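TEACHING EXERCISE
Course module: macromolecular assemblies
Task: Read the component lines below, then compare them to the predicted structure of the full complex.
Student: A.B.
Group: 4
Components provided:
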Amino acid sequence: MSSPALALTVNGRPRPLENVPASERLLDTVRWRLGLKGTKEGCRSGDCGACTVLVDGVSTLSCLTLTHEVGGSTISTIEGMADDPIGRAVQEAFERAGALQCGYCTPGFVVALVGLLRERGRAAPVEELLADLGGNLCRCTGYLSIARAVSLLQKEAP
Amino acid sequence: MASFDLVTPTTEEAAIAELRTGAPGEVAVLAGGTDLMFDLDGAKAAPRRVVSLRRLPWRTADWNGPVLTVGSTLSLRSLERDPEIAKKHPGFFQAIRAVGSVQLRHRATLGGNLGRAAPASDLIPILLALDAEVDLVGPSGSRSLPVDRFVLGARRTALASGELIRSVRFPEPRASTYLWQRVRPANDISQIAVASAYSPSDGRWRLAVGGIPPRALRLPEAEAILRSADPPDAEIRDAADRAARHLVIATDRRASEEYRRHLVGTLLDRAVRSTVAASKGGR
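Instructor-supplied answer key:
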């Protein structure tokens, strides 16, 4: 089976990869090959958003993406969010709002929101941001505190 | 997941040639992959070779006068973020927003949605209402088909062996609306969805319904009841009632027949009114 070498830049570091099968999903590459376990596997079918990572700055379901399809791209995972001003602001807002219960969905929410803010700008209306987070599920149903985190963030938007 | 070879041709000709390298079913076409992934994973006969379209120069959206041509591999999110498309094809914008989630739309494509022809596709009803045409390329050249003749049934299209969807053409801007009902706003399948559009060039309405297997349908009888750009209330109610009464609708695990009939009538009524309001606002 063809598995040419590929290179990813992950959280700012070049990560050359070898012998990645054509069928490998980005989720599995990130978690098992790169050891970045912050990205979670929820449904593995694109329904829950827990596996969200940024591919060239754009939020992507890593469970529905073949790693070879994003060869050469820049990947940001939850582990890289603190290196970025928007990522830091989102993480702080989640912390202040207590926007997590079991925490399993949190990396997906944080990365998805960072992606939205990069795309839409910090001044995007809260209601629209919340609607655009509709692809992320919280099975503890802690949505009110997540919504509070988004509002906090927007109040402090520069 | 079963193993396969992944190839990424860079030209149309090379992509078409790749499709001929195995028997039908052995070769799969990959655009965004958000739906194909389930085949690659599933117990169904898995393809041995996957042809990725990502390097083809088809990620474009171009206007030529009133005609909008959308390349088949452009992401749905790019279309959604294009203000001119949202303004000139509002129903198309609303339908795109109904597909999956932001993360999914960053990879999902218009060509993929059409080619996979899911019975509950959120894009096929509005493509029907906008008289969209599908441009195909294959070993014996190019051809175009209206969406109504391209989508044949659940997961069945008129794509011939070795053919690919290159683009989708929208003939003219139309006041249009797409409405749906489902349990969860994102990442869910519509129990019923309706599309309505009014054509300024021929002065006729287009109505379509989705969410009823095997495929989305135009509603010509209901369309004929609406006789002007701003039809009176009685005509709108009559058109919506007729569609709700006459469609062949079944109960399945997503919704009962009775509830679906109710939705068809209610959503069509609202969609036509919203289209009228949009066309007045746009003048």
